[in-house]
TrEMBL record:
Name of a matching Pfam family: Amidase
Protein name: Asp-tRNAAsn/Glu-tRNAGln amidotransferase A subunit
Keyword Transferase set for record: yes
Record keywords, A-Z: Transferase
InterPro entries, per database record: Amidase (IPR000120), Amidase_dom (IPR023631), AS_sf (IPR036928)
Amino acid sequence: MTLTNEPDATDPMTARAIAADLATGRRSAAEVAATTLQRVAHWEPKVAAFSHFDPELLKAQAEALDAAPVRGPLAGVTVAVKDVIATRDMPTEHNTARYQGSRPGVDAACVDTLRAAGAMIMGKTVTTEFASTNRGGKTRNPIDPTRTPGGSSSGSAAAVACGMAAIGLGTQTGGSTIRPASFNGIWGMKPTWGVISREGLKQYSMTCDTLGLYARSADDLGLLCDVFDLDPAPQPARLEGLRIGLCRTPMWDRTEPPMRRALEEAADALRLAGAEVIEVELPSLYAGIAEAHSVILAREGRSSFLNEVRNTPGIHDEYIAIVGNARGITPEDARHAYTLADRCRAAFDEIMGGFDAIMTPSACGEAPVGLERTGDAAMNSMWTLLQVPVVSVPGLTGPNGMPLGISFVARRYADRTALAVAKLAGEVLARDEVELA
């Protein structure tokens, strides 16, 4: 197992670098757009991250921004948007036949907020169909094109990983933001459920659907926390003295040996930096949480996809099975799943009273070879159902040279705490001088 450095802090196309340069006049939005076009020309034929990209639209946004008398905190920052998120000036097609060429004419709330901050919405990125399946698409992992970039937010993760976009918007209902962050070696954040509006996002599960964020640095995610006005929370400045729980989750048997070693090595590195890393044994209550997540998605998917099945001849059998309740989930099954989820959330609030953050795997292992499937979300679904903030930290790699992300979790609405601890951990994991077994 080896360590890799974080993306170069001098990269001129990170969100913070772009925003700082435009604020001081060192660069114009037009110059940012020109560099972006060069990167897209180089990487897009290899990665295929975009479902829609219009160079002229990007240039027009840059021209308007350069002429604007007032610029926001994300002025000139390029944003790639997952194609289940509505955009007023681009198609929103959900990677499904029924919506080919569909233009909603309005922005999702998150996109609207980013535009108000001065961001340039550069294109729509590949998603799995309705962001609800692990059937793969055309997007390839920039690190190894024979491997999946993960899903369902495959395009946004890949676009950020190879520097075509500074920021990527994804979604997560199971593991669709955090797993691709791990597979592509970038920073990924699943905020607390509901702290960023999901108006304008294709719905799968009202209980779990969450906007996801990608960047190449923790500082860039911090900018997004400010723009989306996330709650104030403690932001520790050093690892020394922090209490961090090491949680293997009830799905630990799904992890692969390289990820198991990575988690232990990350824990050792944090201990060397002065953090107190403590094993967390979750109560037996959590043994059923993965099944509860599965039942809730199946139940809520029935109503979410009913209209699609009724109006789309030839729709994939997966959706027919969901709407037709092929699993035979009863109302009592659903009530039990919701009750268990509520109890687990309350219990986790109590557990977190003894910790600053929890560390846990971001994925089961390295990105699998092949594009047919997007990988296993077993390490993510519990945290999604708990509705807590999760930040995936890059830095470690496996035996095939592929990234292995480590997630840091905080209690609900402590998103800034999760990010602050993750940033400190990332600085340790990215140090060349750190020697791990």
